[in-house]
Every structure is written in structure tokens, then in C-alpha cells.
Design goal:
Bound molecules: S-adenosylmethionine
Strand order of the largest sheet: 3-2-6-1-7
CATH class of the largest domain: Alpha Beta
Largest sheet: 5 strands, parallel
Mean pLDDT: 92
Number of helices: 7
Radius of gyration: 20 Å
Structural class: alpha/beta
Number of domains: 2
CATH topology of the largest domain: Methyltransferase, Cobalt-precorrin-4 Transmethylase, Domain 2
Shape: elongated
């Protein structure tokens, strides 16, 4: 195989934070203001794109659950194409690009194509959700371990490592768990966590529509079933929920 020819342009994978545009980093704002091309996802907070140059090419490549707007391979091709034309590309992702952001595949394809790539971290949704509740996810009296995992079903089943999730003195933050909240809560209790352990579904953290539905592993599923949830949501489980505001 021939050696890839280094492209003149480059791609920055940039974290946009969980929604509040003020949680954008200074570096993200600077790169957005300089970018020729910005590829952005659905969960980009309103106001974040205001940092783009007026003449920048903005491409929505967002995905909705079960409805992928643009195939991942097409996103790779777009980034490679624009970088090879010598353009500065920002690939803007919600939260932190390296947490459930498909950054791994994008980095691999860019490197394989000889495109220079850099990552700019962002505030992940778990941090945004915890901050607005004044919640220390690793409160030293209550939790020594923070587990970040996904509640997204793989091939229709919840493929979680229940034994490790049910260890004592840890906090769980489960992304993409809105549709599986009931199954997760039931699974955690079935594998040994107390039914009265605090659990909270956080919707649209750091945005004006932010909502925290707090209960226990036993009560939360009914609360979630009775509440229309439109925004992105994650589940927090653990004793630390008894602290904060
Ligand atoms: C594909 S993952 C992307 C995560 C992102 N890279 C991050 O670091 O926050 C999308 C999931 O992140 C969570 N999420 C993103 N923004 C959120 C927000 N503002 N409030 C609550 N959960 C959020 C939800 O679980 C959503 O289904």
C-alpha cells in the first residue's frame, strides 16, 4: 500500500460541552472562529455555532437515536476531503469527544488518510449534570469509584457488566439510558444493590430545560415512565445523590 500523503489541512475534534454555551473552552471558541468548515452534531448547545466565522461551511451530520442522519463513513470522507483541500476543519461534538463520541473511529480514519488531527476536550454531560446539583460524584465519605457506562442496547439486549456495576462505594453515571432506565434499575437490584439506593435521571443538564427526576432504584422507573423526556438524559446512581442540592 502506498504511504498516505500528508494533507495540508487539519481536523480538530472539539468538545462543545453539555449544552450551556458558556461551558465551551476558550480553545474551542478560538478554533471555531478560525475554522473553514464545521461539522456538527445534534447535541450542540444553542449559541455555540455563533462562534463560527460567517463564511464557514457548516455541515450538520447529526444523528438521532435509531435514525442515523449521515453514515459514519460519509462523515470520515467529508473530513478527509476538506482537509485534503487544505482547509481547517472542526468536528464539533457534544460534551467531550472522547466519551461516547465515536472519536476513536474518526481519529483512526483521519490518521490512516494522513490527515493531521488534534482533540480538544470538552465538559462531559456527567460533569454538567453533577455541577448543577452541587454534587460531588466522588464524595470522599461515600464513593471511591466513578463508573461511566452506557445504557444503550446492543442488538436489543442490555449488555452490562452487572457485577462490576454493583460494587459498594461507587457512583454510576449511565449515558444513553433514558429508554432503558427501568431495565437498568431492575438489573441493579437483581444483582445486589439496595432498592432504596438513590437514583436520578437528569435531562438536558446545563440547559434552561434541565430537569432532575430523583428517586430510588425502586421508584425511579415509574417516575420516568410518567414523564415525557425529550432532551438528552443520563442516569446517576449512588449514595452521593443524598448530598448536594
Ligand atoms: C452519544 S452520547 C455523547 C456524550 C458526550 N460525548 C459527552 O461527553 O457528554 C449522548 C448521550 O450523552 C448524554 N448527554 C449529552 N448531553 C446531555 C445533557 N445535556 N444532559 C444529560 N445527558 C446528556 C445522554 O445520555 C445522551 O444520550
Amino acid at each position: 500500500m502506498p504511504e498516505p500523503v500528508p494533507a495540508a489541512g487539519r481536523v480538530h475534534l472539539v468538545g462543545a460541552g453539555p449544552g450551556d454555551p458558556e461551558l465551551l473552552t476558550l480553545k474551542a471558541a478560538r478554533l471555531l472562529a478560525a475554522a473553514d468548515v464545521v461539522l456538527y452534531d445534534r447535541l450542540i448547545g444553542e449559541g455555540v455555532l455563533d462562534h463560527c466565522r460567517a463564511d464557514a461551511e457548516r455541515i450538520f451530520v447529526g444523528k438521532r437515536r435509531a435514525r442515523h442522519r449521515m453514515p459514519q463513513a460519509a462523515i470520515h470522507e467529508l473530513m478527509i476531503d476538506r482537509a485534503r483541500r487544505g482547509l481547517d476543519v472542526v468536528r464539533l461534538k457534544g460534551g467531550d469527544p472522547l466519551i461516547f463520541g465515536r472519536a476513536g473511529e474518526e481519529i483512526a480514519s483521519l490518521l490512516a488518510a494522513g490527515v493531521r488531527v488534534e482533540v480538544v476536550p470538552g465538559v462531559t454531560a456527567a460533569s454538567g449534570a453533577a455541577a448543577e446539583r452541587l454534587l460531588s460524584l466522588t464524595h470522599r465519605d461515600l464513593s471511591q469509584t466513578l463508573v461511566i457506562t452506557t445504557g444503550h442496547r446492543q442488538d436489543g439486549s442490555l449488555d452490562l457488566d452487572w457485577a462490576s456495576l454493583c460494587r459498594p462505594r461507587q457512583t454510576l453515571v449511565i449515558y444513553m439510558s433514558h429508554y432503558t432506565t427501568a431495565a437498568i434499575c431492575a438489573g441493579l437490584v437483581a444483582h445486589g444493590l439496595p432498592a432504596d439506593l438513590p437514583a436520578c435521571l437528569v435531562e438536558s443538564a446545563t440547559l434552561p430545560a434541565s430537569r432532575h427526576l430523583g428517586g430510588t432504584l425502586a421508584t425511579l422507573p415509574d417516575m420516568v415512565a410518567a414523564t415525557p423526556i425529550d432532551g438528552p438524559a443520563l442516569l446517576i446512581v449512588g449514595e452521593v445523590l443524598a448530598t448536594g442540592s
